[in-house]
Amino acid sequence: MSLLAETVRILLNGLQTGAIYVLLAIGLSIILGTLKFVNFAHGALYVVGLYVGLLVSQETTFSQGQLAEFGFGTLGLDMGFLAALIIVPIIVFVLGMAMERFVARPFYDRPDTDQILLTFGLAIVVQQALRVLFGGNSQSFAQPAWASGAVQLPLVGGFPQWRLWVIVITAVLVVLVYALIEFTDFGLTVRAGTQDSEMVQLLGIKITRPYIAVFGIGAALAGVAGVVGGPLTVVNPTVGTDVLVPAFLTVVIGGLGSIRGAVLGGLILGITQSFLIQWSLVIPALGINYGLAPWSQVGIYAIAAIILLVRPQGLLGSEVDIS
Amino acid sequence: MSDKNANATETEADGGETVSGGTGTASLDGVRSRWERVRGRESTIIALTIVGVALFPYLLARAPVISDLLQGYQELASLILVWGIFAIGFDLLLGRTGLLSFGHAALWGAGAYAAGWLSANVVQSPLVIVGIAVLFAVVLSVVLGVLSLRRGGIYFAILTLAFAQMIYYMASAPLASITGGDNGLTGVEIGPLLGSFDLGTELPSVAGTLLGTWRYAFIAAALVASVAVILRILNSLYGIVFRAIHENEQRASFVGFNVWRYKLAAFVLSGTFAGLAGALFTVHGEYVPLSSLYWTTSGEVVIMTVLGGVGTLIGPLIGAGIYLWVEYIVSGGYPFDWIGPYWHLVLGLVFVTVVVLFPQGVWGVVEDGRSWIAARLEER
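Above: the input entities. Below: the structure tokens describing the complete assembly.
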């Protein structure tokens, strides 16, 4: 395979990894930017999306679940995944709204350390509740039948089809959210709230409704991330915490409250990770051929550290600082 | 209930009890006022700590009635003290300066790995191992502190978490030849204390009451020393500036203090205790699991500190006691079979309840109760 083809393949893999970070980071970022609320339970919403998605897709995939016994599997109605993609965001959106109302709102005036402690505790509770409900063992999330297998791409050759779908779904969602924030009145209020929520309220705009919607949208995106990311990872109650840290890093290096920043940050981290997995350090003269894969997890933190040392407010961060 | 707490309050009660042997209310008031005068002194608190750690293993594991209820065992006593050191050091940062670090696993793990690696490769003397491991943790905490303190507030929490995860992943794969990767660090061998006291042997008994092993004595001495050092810090200029930063950072910096420097000092000091505790954890368990660097370890010390009560000396110790007692005893089975498998969930719920309703933690509730009773007695 040519170097170019190899590079494109690595980039595609990086886009896919980054896509999951982006989906999580946008939610974190708009909640943090607009509501000034630190949500350590964002990873928990991802896992909720993952488990609910698994449940829905199994039950509505007629080749599995209850309905399979009635022969629905043979009809080719393998639509569980689409159902999950529609149902999960709705459920997690409602969950997010409930979280804003009952968890976040009473804590807006408490110090941010209290917010972190609260959501951290909540994340533990959700994780453990899922463990009680679904068991602690890892399960696997089947890829939808219509998107499994490889697809032939020009130049690259065979590429896992689901990875492309993750990129496409993420791209569509990001464009939708971006349009919502940039071009609607709702978005205008939210953006104004990010800049100066007090002033928005002084102008007579009731900000509680946009707030609750922002939380809902952020949560729904985390839920979607769980569903689309599900087939690519193992499903167990602790994966939420594993994605939370990279997602936070994405927000921090991209710049707070900026959707473009979240996208940029996610792609940087995803692509860095992807390159490190594939690359090796080859110095023939010294007889060195050292695979960098073990460094792939370390690499994203190193990149983040470097970016923060150079630009503490993040790549596309505004001057507004909430700390 | 933690015993550490029981000890301290009991000793305090003892102070009051001597009184009832006196000749009447006048001398009772006299002794009480003298007690009020000395109770805040460093020497009093250190003396109480010594009495507390001396009685602790007996109360937890061997005393009639109490230890039957607690079902504790001797090794758990030293483990509680180890985590106690971690938690009181952590509170120096969270409780005194208001900085919430989610990366202290890195410093605890650094101490633990350094101690383990030294014992397996260089030297076996526990004092030397712990000393060098603490130095290693100090150096690392300076680096992490300088990096993380570039941004305040929530960024600090996120950055400490991120850098600690970076170290976890480094230990897990690229540095696996040193750290043992997923298998953890095995081959840890701790030699005798000062060349002559084997850590595993029991201490001589006092009045038929066993005080634990030399290992326990070593750890208990470290706890007493930690308490003494922390008291000294809190009662010095540093302690006052820490409090000022907690109250109002901007004002502290306007007054002319270099806030960033004091924050770094607080971070490094708490990192020192984290490293000490980590090294002692290795001395205690003679094994370093990779999970000691994972961020759940940071989470555990956060839970302990907040659960027990931030900003107090005894709160984090109580928190450590409760957490480990629940982890080792409640999860263990009879008579807790009905709740054992869900202990993590229950602890999570309790933690959330404490954050929402009792920000002062268990010790805060005890204090409130005590002052409520005192007020009632005053009324009568």
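Note for the figure: The CA atoms of residues 104 and 250 of chain A lie 22 Å apart.
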